[in-house]
Amino acid sequence: MTPAQATRCMDALKSKTTLRRIFGCSKENVIIVTPGKFRNHCKAYPEWGAEALRLAKENEKAAGIRTTTVNLKYARERSAESRRNAATCANGHVRTLENTFYVLNERNCLVRRCRDCNKNAKRARLPTEEQVRAVVVAVHHGATLTAAASASSQPALRNFFRKNPKIGNRIYTLSRANLAARLREVWRAKRLTAAPSLTQNNGEDAYEAVRRATAHLHEHERDDVMSRMFIAIGEGWLKLSEASVRVGEFLRDQRRRPRVYGDQRFSLDNPLADGSGMTWLDTKTNADRLWGLGTAEAPRKEGGF
Length: 305
Known about the structure:
- The protein is mainly α.
- The chain is 58% helix and 3% strand.
């Protein structure tokens, strides 16, 4: 070898380069010297040759360890680096903050994903034949579409129904009918479960609760208010324990109801019925007066009461 070749060869060995690359067997390096010239130079200069062979052996050993243990890691790092620096995703969508999100992969590492690719995959996803058959059977047996299919499989089912509109319209119609029937059953069950509170103890509990709640009301309003409260207990929106607290609501409602038919003032001079010659005043006796008469009847004053 020439002195220049010997210098370059020694510098390459000291920089952890193997003989394979020095001899030009690798595409990444330009040939420095041939194997024959290297062996002849080692024989001509034993000290130089011993140092060169020692470095070459260390480099070969280090290269072997690196190849077997670190190569896969470096390959992953290079691949990840190239993906991080890429301006587009694998399908050509431009990387932006709006269409990019991150998820954890199986190695618990954050991986960047493309929203456009995710949307396209969801649009193309279709259910299996078993899933479609199970949904059709469930809907025909009274289930709703939400109950028949899981939340994760519903997007795929919608894609299938869009591609098969006749099947989709039929399933949607049956599902809506089943939902209406289910709501009717729930409403009927609520009405039925409210009835026992009205018939409990042969109705004595409900009657006693309403009687105590309306004991302070005037007698001409008490019966109507009690009737309204009994209906509310039967329909389930009035509890027996709340009768005394909510009696005011039913009293206000009772007093408001007559005004629905107009602003006519109620008076004792009004006729009992249409075409009747009697008035409400004709039905009153001394016992109905605000101040009852004693044993001896007081003289009547002009003007009635």
